[in-house]
Amino acid sequence: MGNSFTMLLDGFQTAFTPTNLMFGLLGTFLGTLVGVLPGIGPALAIGLLLPVCLSVNPTSALIMFAAIYYGAMYGGSTTSILLNTPGESGSVITALEGNKMAKAGRAGAALATAAIGSFVAGTIATLLLAFGAPWMAEVALTIQPAGYLSLIILAFATVGTLLGSSRIRGLVALSVGLVIGLIGADLQSGALRLTFGNLNAIDGIETVTVIVAIFALGEALYLASRHTLVPTEVLEMKGKAWMTREDFCRSWRPWLRGTAIGFPLGVIPAGGSEVPTFLSYGVEKALSKNKTEFGKGAIEGVAGPEAANNANAAGVLVPMLALGLPTSATAAVVLVAFQSFNIQPGPMLFQTSPEVVWGLIASLFIGNTLLLVLNLPLIRFWVLLLKIPTHYLYAGITTFALLGAYALNNSTFDLQVALAVGVIGYLFRRFGVPITPLIIGVILGPLAELQFKRALQISQGDWHILIAGGFPKIIYGILLLVIIGPLVWNFKKKFAVAK
Amino acid sequence: MEIPQGSSIISPQTFPYMVAAFTSLVGFGLIIDILRGRLGVPDGDEPGDPVIPTNYKTMAIVGLAIALHVVLLDISGYVIAAAVCFFGTSYGFGSRKYLKDFGISLTFALIVYFSFTKGLHINLPSGFFEGILGNGK
């Protein structure tokens, strides 16, 4: 613990150099900018800005990503409240009450409780991250490949079955991701897999290309196919972005409860920010003295889920940094960002690159504070962005996404891949298949294979090693609960209805 | 697939076969799900919402704009490819102020081109504007 504290202070020293501070500031600005734009969530935001950052040194670039991460999260809530078009699943709930508040002329209070709640939750959760992640990494050092494989499979199951309305569709998305992850030369033997003679495919499919294309191009094609060109109504900001004393009294408990719900659900692979924000909303509704206000613009319904969303975002970074296991699309992109600088998150990270990781954690604190200081006064500027006409907005997003796909390797092949993945993204949206499991499959598939091979190499090919020892058994036990639990639950419900 | 000899205990085919088995299994599950009448709910809709008919024309225009970018990039260079893509997408999304769209498309492409090549030193193909725009470095 004491060690973490000194390391964190060193991290602040890294983050507080003028250059890094400037990158942090730039990141907060860019993150909020793209986060505010409807149709761009945090994952796409980081994916789009990745090529921009590749010309910077790793520490500065990752500090900038940290700022973009929180900034995009923050910007997303602005869109939800003023436009009722949440950019990512974590802000869906915010739109529920936040947009009603804005319609009632209380946009200022809604934005303020979202911002301050995000700040409070982000600060507490980042503190927990700073002390929890090194501890988890130390424990993780003792995990054998077979145990690691069981963790990955658990992440597959939770991300695959908890997202979206249909479990089978989540697993379909996961399997498509796994197949994409297989493409290219096998790392150990060099055997070519699924390349079909295409020399460009030997190095595999670029993950960033997949992410950018599936979000940006898939969304553009989908919206065009539905031709929903009804101009969305931007609500005017009346008054200042600030809260009354009563708003404060009604907000601070939801902020803390949201943090308590969001952080742990981020650390365990519970499948993104949907579950915690829904849970927090439910809890606030159940505990509120003003139940009748829910659905009409209750401030608790903004404060709690927004805090849960941000605490969740920090929680997700714990397994991402300590185990190298991303459990949300956004964490997956951050992982890719690390990898593009040849830094591999995982148990060794805190030993091999302490400067980078502690600089990153320190800059999460700084970014969080900058957001609060900068954004409430700048809110009118961000609102102007919402007035960009939809056709220019999507033209810009599409063109920029293609640039991002190309600039990574200067390769036309990557652009062809982007087009194909964009079509997959369209089909997924049209037929109700969730996107995140695909991304998790692309990133964790190769890792799963690596651990699988390592385990079998240790045992000289004896498959029993995969379930040998206590740790994998516990994890597979949890896996069974995750799979069977909801089935039993559904069966009971049906049974009760039939009676 | 050619497998180099003796490199590892585990064949590089083992894991792909496992993925293939899993993919077939969930594919089969999906077919059953659909046959039982559980069609997917389009993104953003609630179950039971009326299905919005697909507008193939607008979708094809946007798809074409993206495809043109892919094809044109190596032929005409970044600026034209990006401008065509921007213009095509905004047309697909219903914009019909051609002159304004054209101006914005070209401005967007030029700003991106110069800020990437000159500001960030990321190389983009200059195409046949090489003489005017510099060699993209």
What this model shows, in words?
The complex is a heterodimer of chains A (499) and B (137). The model of chain A has no long low-confidence stretch (mean pLDDT 85). Chain A is built from 19 helices and 2 strands. In chain A, helix 1 crosses helix 15 (354-385) and helix 5 packs antiparallel against helix 6. Chain A has helices at residues 2-15, 18-36, 42-53, 58-83, 92-103, 107-140, 145-162, 167-182, 207-226, 245-267, 274-287, 300-323, 329-340, 349-352, 354-385, 390-407, 412-430, 436-458, 470-498, and strands at 184-185, 192-193. Chain A is an all-alpha fold. Chain A has one domain (2-468). The longest helix of chain A has 34 residues, at 107-140. Chain A is globular. The model of chain B has no long low-confidence stretch (mean pLDDT 84). Chain B is mainly α. In chain B, 61% of the residues lie in helices and 0% in strands. Chain B has helices spanning 14-35, 56-76, 78-92, 98-119, 130-133. Chain B has 2 domains: 12-41; 58-133, no CATH class. Chains A and B meet through helix 8, strand 2, helix 9, helix 16 and helix 17 of A and helix 1, helix 2, helix 3 and helix 4 of B.
